[in-house]
Design a protein that fits this description.
Layout (H helix, E strand, L loop, with lengths): L1 E10 L2 E11 L4 E5 L6 H8 L7 E6 L2 E2 L4 H7 E4 L11 H11 L4 H14 L15 H13 L5 E5 L7 H14 L4 E5 L3 H7 L2 E6 L2 E6 L1 H8 L3 H8 L1 H11 L7
Parallel strand pairs: 3-8, 3-9, 6-7, 7-8
Antiparallel strand pairs: 1-2, 1-4, 4-5, 9-10
Length: about 250
């Protein structure tokens, strides 16, 4: 359902995403991990057609992100790191606006809004202005707008950020339920979340993929926890490279 080939993006001299490739299928919940600045959000923005790549390509359900971006947007639900919303709108008004933008009208619009209001647990704030909502509720409203058109592919950047433990549990259960019929990519810094819901994980650092496997296999390879896996592939790897760079002519 999702295919990425040699995707690249630079901002001036800084290469944010450096030729990454991977695939994800229906039923996958792919955890996309990396340190701050590793290229996670930039990748997600390219896959959801918010940023054009400098090189490589990607497709969603066979639709190319450059040549068929409208079809990609129709097939994708995107939860951004900072959800763009209108503070003066009520939750219901915002979701109606999103439905109108996506061509969901009439009875189908109300059915779609009722469905996400229940699944995202926002029914009790539907008539409240978004600007008055807590961070956790705003996050759930953002998730609702990503789900309202029932897309086959979900790209979720930090979906549980700002949620309390009970809310996190509910969202994780929702994601696991959605994964039966969808392909889901999740960016997160919470390694316990990867353990709880992801059947695959990719670790990216400095724009390159350092690992693409299951959580279980990566733990076996380092004989340790996911925290140790993460540090070995990011912090320790950087230290080794820094030391090697400091030795002129040294073997590497």
């Amino acid at each position: 359902m999702l295919e990425v080939k040699g995707l690249r993006k630079a901002f001036g001299p800084i290469v944010a995403v450096d030729g990454i490739s991977f695939e994800a299928a229906r039923g996958d919940v792919l955890g996309f991990l990396g340190p701050n600045g590793a290229g996670k959000t930039t990748t997600m923005r390219m896959l959801s057609c918010f940023l054009p790549p400098d090189g490589g390509t990607a497709s969603v359900l066979g639709y190319d992100i450059m040549a068929q971006s409208v079809a990609v947007r129709r097939s994708t639900g995107y939860l951004a790191e900072n959800v763009p919303a209108y503070d003066e709108m009520t939750t219901e008004g915002f979701l109606k606006f999103v439905c109108a933008a996506r061509g969901i009208n009439g009875r189908k619009r109300q059915q779609a809004i009722d469905a996400v209001a229940g699944s995202c647990a926002i029914a009790d704030v539907m008539h409240q202005p978004i600007g008055t909502l807590s961070k956790g509720y705003r996050r759930r409203v953002g998730l609702a707008q990503a789900l309202v058109h029932d897309p086959p592919v979900l790209i979720l950047d930090e979906p549980t950020d700002g949620l309390d433990p009970n809310q996190k549990h509910d969202v994780r259960e929702l994601i696991k339920d959605l994964a039966r019929e969808k392909c889901i990519v999740i960016s997160t810094h919470i390694l316990e979340e990867v353990d709880a819901i992801c059947n695959r994980m990719i670790i990216i650092d400095r724009g390159k993929i350092r690992a693409d496997s299951t959580p279980e296999k990566l733990r076996e390879e380092v004989n340790g926890s996911l925290d140790e896996v993460f540090r070995k592939l990011t912090v320790e790897r950087r230290e080794v490279h820094s030391e090697g760079a400091a030795v002129p002519g040294g073997a590497g």
